[in-house]
């Protein structure tokens, strides 16, 4: 039976976000899908309600930021955003603003994509920023907070990222020999991440960090498609 929920997606024009959007469109539990993006998506559906905004000033969207759950699929890379201040504003600032608005507007489910290896004490800037984001998002104490920590996300992106194609092919080959303790480092398909996000939002599951191997396990046993 349909529950007529409202969902918010940040990053619906990205690789994982676009797949998540398609899943929610087909899911009869959702009546409205609010998209907060800096550019319009190419997907058209009566469920979609688009908000073209400056994500770096998301707090200005407080009135429209109402829903049952929030999916944060925002992220960038060093090659795409070499400036560290801008990088932090995107990978830390946007998820934090979204979580803060969620708490203020009584949205009880917040799901964000982080990365395997995130650690606030890491010497690597990327991992350190992701780790700080995780730590501070959890401090906001949204009842159902899920932080997904995927390894390299496979799949074809619209924008080209230098060296990423080769690394993905290498990881794809290595997946066959990454077994036992190494299994958690296998690359993961964006479809599996999207499936896991929808599952977490609609089932009783302990809040916290969801590591790469758990993402794949949940997706493989609960895919509705």
UniProtKB/TrEMBL annotation:
Organism, scientific name: Galbibacter orientalis DSM 19592
InterPro entries according to UniProt: NAD(P)-bd_dom, NAD(P)-bd_dom_sf
Name of the protein in its database record: NAD(P)-binding domain-containing protein
Residue ranges constituting the NAD(P)-binding domain according to the UniProt record: 11-129
Pfam family for this entry, one: NAD_binding_10
